[in-house]
Amino acid sequence: MKPKAFTLVELMIVMAILAILAGMAVSQYSTYKHKAQAKDLVTLAAGCVHEIVSQCTVDPGFSSPSSLENCRSRNATAYLDVVNFLLPSSFSCNRTFSVVAYATVHGTTVVYQANCTYDKTTHNIFCSGPEQRR
């Protein structure tokens, strides 16, 4: 005669597998949540690039993007601690340039960054991120 019920060992194995899967899901959820909260960085980096391009249109000899309002470090947003910008060290309106915005998500030590590049030849802005900064 065959037994028709699960043994205690079988039930414990199933519970262990479910616990492992739940642990992985919680970890992935946190990663995706932090990345979604860091999406503001793309908007901030793009805003800096747009302001630089506008300034270059008005003044082709412009050379100090760090003086622009949208390119300065700023206090926290809804999800991010202080937002900082990496700007080109030797800037010229006649060249392609990139701006990197980076910040820590509230309550974590993980730093995310977004990168926006202005292509002088095509006059297009390309942004990527947010990505974990290493």
Describe the structure.
The mean pLDDT is 87. The relative contact order is 0.17. Strands 1-2-3-4 form a four-stranded antiparallel β-sheet, with helices on one face. It has one domain (38-132). A hairpin with a 4-residue loop joins strand 3 (111-119) and strand 4 (124-132). The longest helix has 30 residues, at 8-37. By secondary structure, it is of the alpha+beta class. The chain is elongated, with a radius of gyration of 24 Å. The chain has helices at 8-37, 40-58; strands at 84-86, 97-104, 111-119, 124-132. The termini are far apart. InterPro entries: N_methyl_site (IPR012902), Pilin-like (IPR045584). Keywords: Membrane, Transmembrane, Transmembrane helix. This is Type II secretion system protein.
Question: What's the short version?
Answer:
The chain is α+β, with helices and mostly antiparallel strands and 134 residues long.
Structurally, the number of domains stands at 1
Q: Based on CA inertia axes, which overall geometry fits?
A: elongated
Total count of strands: 4
How many alpha or pi helices? 2
Give unreliable regions as ranges. Answer: none
Helix and strand succession? HHEEEE
